[in-house]
Amino acid sequence: MNWKTEYDQIKTGDSVTWTDFIYKCIEEVAYPPRKNCLYDTFEDLRTTDFVTAPASTHYHHAYKCGLIKHTCETIALAFSIRKACEANVDYTELLTCSLLHDYGKVGKYKENSEYRSTDSTGYPFKYISRDAELSDQLRSVIYVTQMIPDISEKEIFAILYHDGLYPDENIISKNKETPLQLMIHWADMWSARMDQYGW
Known about the structure:
Number of helices: 8
CATH architecture: Orthogonal Bundle
CATH topology: Hypothetical protein af1432
Strand order of the largest sheet: 1-2
Number of strands: 2
Strand content: under 5%
Order of helices and strands: HHHHHEEHHH
Largest sheet: 2 strands, antiparallel
Number of domains: 1
Radius of gyration: 16 Å
Helix content: 40-55%
C-alpha cells in the first residue's frame, strides 16, 4: 500500500472510506487465525459507537466519527514510520496495535447539549460516568486480550503505553520502549496534533 496516499484519502474521507480502509488493511494480514480475529474484532467494534464516536471531549478529533478517523490516521502514519525507518516491525502486530490502541474510548463520550460553539462555552462532548475509572489504555488491553487469544506481551505493552510518558503512571515504561510501542506512540501523537493544531 502507498501509505502517504492512504493517509491523504483518510484526511478528507468519511466513515465509509475509513471502514473500507480498515478492511483493506486486515486483508493484508498473512496469518489466517489473526486475520480472522481482526475481522471479528472489527465487526464487534462496528456494533458499538466506534464508528460514530469522537476521540476526545475537545482536544483532538472531537467530532462525530473522530475516533475511527483518528484510528485510521494512526494506522497509516504507523506504517509510514515503519517504512521510513526500515524498521523490522511485524505488519500484523503494528496493525493490531494501531487499530485497537484507543478501544478504551468506546462508549466513553456523549454530546454535550449545553455546548454553544458560538461563544465556546464548555466542550462539544462530555464523559459518560462508568462504574470504575480505568484508564483508556487498560480498557483497550482488557478488550484486546478477550478478542485476540494469541496477543503477545509486546503488543500489550505497545497498547498499554501508547501515550508514552504523558500519563504519570507510564513512568514505569521509561527506558523500556520498544520499536512497536514507539511507532504507535509517534503515529498517535502526530494524528492528534495534526487535528488539534493543524500542523
